[in-house]
Write a structure and sequence with these properties.
It is a single chain. With 275 residues, this protein is of the alpha+beta class. It has eight helices and six strands. The strands form two sheets. The chain has a four-stranded mixed β-sheet with strand order 3-4-6-5, with helices on both faces. It has a two-stranded antiparallel ribbon with strand order 1-2. A hairpin with a 5-residue loop joins β1 and β2.
Length: 275
């Protein structure tokens, strides 16, 4: 009788490498607030540390603003973050206004919110500002930062596994991998980002309504954004939906958000934030 071949040699087979990579991806799945499956490789503590480091870097690069503008933004942010569930694990939020003409804002894991002064020229009242801050906090609640870095890590790992499995080596292989990398960028990473942006719009709309801000103001905000923009890239090449796509999605959610707004007002939630 001949000796049977060993089940595995010292070097893992390409099929085994691919299977292990797939198993790792499947074991890192979670669910967003709207029921969408997500990748989540990192712990809350790791994400909070990333958020703290990113916020500190932003503080080093841009001057902060105090006075009436800071008080106004903090008033809106405080009303929004009061609606964040305790399960999010964020007890306090640090809110700062940065001197920058770009109409931008952000929220980071760990409880950090930044608003550029340029946004206050576009979001012209408390309800419109609440739409932006609600959207940014929505990213945090939906664990989008985790999903983004996890998706990027998975994409890089997936390409590496594919290169090993397919034996794509040498100059010809590098060219093929370059094309695959472009396909991953436009076929995986950017569409996920657009999906996250749309999801944050809806989560943020609920947050602002629950805080007592008029959710219909979100539509005027994006009309202002559209008027302020200098042209948009094609939707399929952008990390954000087009302004018209955003307004369509928000409009479809107003039937749910409006009763929440009315309920908040009935409960005495009537923010009065002014510059």
């Amino acid at each position: 009788m001949e000796d049977s071949k060993p089940l595995m040699s010292g070097k893992p087979s390409r099929r085994v490498i691919g299977a292990l990579g797939l198993a790792a991806l499947l074991s890192a799945c979670s669910t967003s607030p709207l029921g969408r499956n997500q990748l989540a490789f990192y712990s809350d503590d790791e994400l909070a540390q990333m958020g703290e480091q990113s916020f500190a870097q932003y503080e080093q690069e841009l001057p902060t603003v105090s006075g009436a503008q800071a008080t106004y933004v903090q008033c809106v942010a405080k009303a929004i973050t009061a609606e964040v569930p305790a399960s999010a694990g964020i007890s306090e939020w640090e809110v700062k206004v940065f001197k920058d003409d770009t109409a931008n804002a952000f929220a980071l894991p760990g409880g950090y919110i930044g608003v550029n002064t340029g946004l206050l020229d576009v979001a012209t009242n408390q309800d419109q500002l609440a739409a932006v801050i609600g959207h940014e906090v929505g990213h945090v609640l939906a664990h989008h930062a985790n999903e983004r870095v996890s998706t990027q890590a998975a994409t890089q790992s997936g390409l590496s596994i594919l290169q090993t499995v397919a034996g794509l080596e040498g100059a010809g292989g590098e060219q093929v991998m370059g094309l695959l990398g472009a396909g991953a960028q436009y076929g995986v990473i950017l569409p996920f980002s657009r999906q996250q942006e749309s999801e944050a719009d809806l989560v943020g709309l609920d947050l602002m309504a629950d805080a007592g801000f008029d959710p219909s103001a979100s539509l005027q905000l994006w009309q202002n954004m559209s008027a302020n923009s200098q042209g948009e890239p094609p939707a399929w090449m952008s990390t954000h939906p087009s302004n018209s796509q955003r307004m369509e999605g928000l409009r479809s959610r107003l039937d749910e958000a409006q009763p929440r707004y009315e309920q908040a007002k009935a409960e005495g939630k009537r923010p009065s934030c002014k510059v």
